[in-house]
Write a structure and sequence with these properties.
heterodimer, A: 325 residues, mainly alpha, MetI-like fold, 13 helices, 2% strand, B: 296 residues, BPD_transp_1_N (chain A), MetI-like (chain A)
């Protein structure tokens, strides 16, 4: 077990290193940030001075090693536009994104599981077909389009929901949360639902497929033969076996939710890290872009690592077989 | 293509066509998709105006609701956008760009992915392990995120978005093709071909590949829909196509600014067309999967 974990951690570190190289060199090749900072009457001497201040006159690989050694000390540079450390800016914005993502996850499970179970138990009914059609549509429609229609319907036409922002927040252990105030909740519902749809579609599909498999299994037949009530069979025997694949997929898909949060946050002007990234791209705030990308890559690698390790704990075949084909 | 008729899994092309025609939703989806292709690629011929020729666009006609008439006598059946462009024409050109990006990136990803998948299945050993590790790594990151990073780095442009889409999509083809090719490689006809002392590449491309085609077709249909959807999303975020080549996603983004003031048509109409394309392609892929029944 220890060997497996060490191997995976080393792999993850290699991936991280490669990604920092790609991200840093990629981002630093685009545009020239000097022109954003230097005023229009800035002459050559002033330009050179700005370049030196930003450290842009040194060769790119040297910039990279400075960047890497700073990175290891938790310093990703200062944002050009905000003038404060990029990393603290990310951590400032992160709670909003996480709140959105976790609410979306809860919604996906809250609606997806019951719908999937129902569709699995009654596969040939019209309602079941509707559920599956819904899951196909929710999966294939672009997220930004769904958000747009939600705004048009519930904000512009009906005027029920606010279209932008987080609303009132409460300070919980130094973290601002929207979900605990009525106004914040009001602002949260639409973006969270929009974000949850893809995940919901996946949960419905998985649950239905799992149900179709599990309810014909021998241990369910024996449980029935034992006279255990249908409700108990469903809640304990079926659910336990159903949840394993769902939990794994959700663990991996959570990263996808964070990625799609970029889209949802831009539409609903939700002040999270995703919106921050799009704004940073707009003004070519390179340290902030690099910091966000490194942060997200780091999050993904760690998330994948955790899922892998958890999976090997749950299912020894992964660890022993080693080869997932 | 002659070896397709000998495929043990999918049946002859004629048999497949007969099965396809007997599924109404598949036929409808195909017809709708072909219609979109016709009006998209025929845009310069059927559009009332060229929305990117500034001489034909009048700023005074901006933000007119559907059905309004210009003083020149031209009727804007679907209204105009913020710069006075005829929405109908803009959408026709938008369909064109979206389809070109979707079809081209889907096709290139298919070529790259299929090649990698076949090589991995054929060479096995460390080549297979290495290629599949790369595929695993690629697929462990969400497609939208990878595409986003690439476009941040590359900037805007038709070629750049196609490149980004190919990079995020080839892995799906590679993984699927490798799986099918491994199964096909173990069949008797491959043994027979080996017995005839046919070359490895010849067996791979002339015998195994044709039998992977049904599966590739299904993946390609779904991936193309995904490419169109992804391109629209990225363009909506301002990362995809340049404003000079507006796809449906960019048109929707332009209209988003006017949405709050009730000028719904600028966003909603291109959005409906986008949905039409994506849903028809998805239904097509779904039905093809049932009809061809590949082991996905």
């Amino acid at each position: 077990m220890a060997e497996f974990i060490i191997k995976r951690v080393l792999q993850a570190m290699v991936v991280l290193l490669i990604m920092t190289v790609l991200v840093f060199f990629g981002v630093n090749v685009i545009g020239n940030p000097v022109y954003i900072f230097a005023s229009s009457e800035c002459d050559q001497a002033c330009l050179t001075k700005t370049i030196a201040e930003l450290g842009l006159d040194r060769p790119l690989w040297e910039q990279y090693f400075v960047f890497l050694s700073n990175l290891l000390q938790g310093d990703l540079g200062n944002s050009f536009t905000h003038g404060i450390p990029a990393l603290s800016l990310i951590f400032e914005r992160l709670p909003a994104t996480l709140e959105l993502a976790i609410c979306a996850l809860a919604m996906a499970l809250g609606f997806g599981l019951p719908l999937g179970i129902w569709a699995g138990l009654h596969p040939d009914t019209i309602i079941s077909r509707c559920i599956m059609a819904f899951s196909m549509i929710a999966f294939s429609l672009p997220v930004f389009w769904i958000g747009l229609i939600m705004i048009l319907t519930f904000s512009v036409q009906l005027g029920w929901m606010p279209a932008v922002g987080r609303g009132d927040t409460v300070d919980v252990f130094g973290t601002e949360l929207s979900a605990l105030t009525l106004d914040g909740l009001h602002h949260l519902v639409m973006p969270a639902f929009t974000l949850s749809l893809i995940m919901m579609a996946i949960v419905i599909r998985l649950t239905r497929a799992g149900m179709r498999e599990v309810i014909f299994a021998d241990y369910i037949k024996f449980a029935r033969a034992n006279g255990i009530r249908e409700r108990r069979i469903l809640t304990t025997h079926v659910m336990k076996n159903l949840l394993i694949p769902i939990v794994t997929v959700l663990g991996m898909e959570f990263g996808g939710v964070i990625a799609f949060a970029v889209v949802v946050e831009s539409i609903f002007s939700w002040p999270g890290v995703g919106k921050m990234l799009i704004d940073a791209i707009g003004v070519l705030d390179r340290p902030l872009i690099v910091a966000y990308l490194i942060f997200v890559v780091f999050m993904f690698v760690v998330l994948n690592l955790l899922v892998d390790i958890l999976y090997s704990l749950l299912d020894p075949r992964v660890r022993l077989g080693g080869n997932q084909t | 293509m002659s070896s397709v008729s000998q495929t043990p899994t999918a049946g002859s092309p004629r048999e497949l066509a007969r099965r396809f025609v007997s599924v109404p939703s598949a036929v409808i989806a195909l017809v709708v998709f072909i219609l979109f292709c016709i009006i998209g690629f025929g845009a310069p011929l059927i559009a009332p105006q060229n929305p990117y020729d500034l001489r034909q666009v009048d700023i005074l006609d901006s933000l007119m609701p559907p059905g309004s008439q210009s003083y020149t006598g031209l009727t804007y059946w679907l209204g105009t956008d913020g710069q006075g462009r005829d929405m109908l024409s803009a959408m026709l050109y938008g369909i064109r760009i979206s389809l070109i990006v979707g079809l081209l990136s889907g096709f290139l990803a298919l070529v790259v992915g299929t090649f990698v998948g076949l090589i991995a299945a054929y060479r096995r050993g460390w080549v297979d392990t290495l290629l599949m590790r790369i595929v695993d790594l690629q697929l462990s990151f969400p497609t939208i995120l990878v595409a986003l990073i690439l476009l941040v780095i590359l900037g805007r442009g038709v070629d750049k978005i196609i490149f980004a889409l190919v990079v995020v999509q080839w892995a799906y083809f590679a993984r699927t093709v490798r799986g099918v090719a491994l199964v096909e490689g173990a069949r008797e006809y491959v043994d027979a071909a080996r017995g005839l002392r046919l070359g490895g590449m010849r067996i791979l491309f002339r015998h195994i590949l044709p039998n992977c085609l049904p599966t590739i077709l299904v993946v390609a249909t779904v991936q193309m829909a995904m490419a169109i959807s992804l391109e629209a999303t990225l363009s909506f975020l301002g990362l995809g196509l340049p404003p000079t080549r507006p796809s449906l996603g960019l048109l929707i983004a332009n209209g988003f600014d006017y949405l709050q003031s009730g000028r719904y048509w600028i966003s909603v109409l291109p959005g409906i067309v986008l949905l039409g394309i994506i849903i028809s392609a998805n239904v097509l892929g779904d039905r093809l999967r049932d009809i061809l029944n590949p082991r996905l």
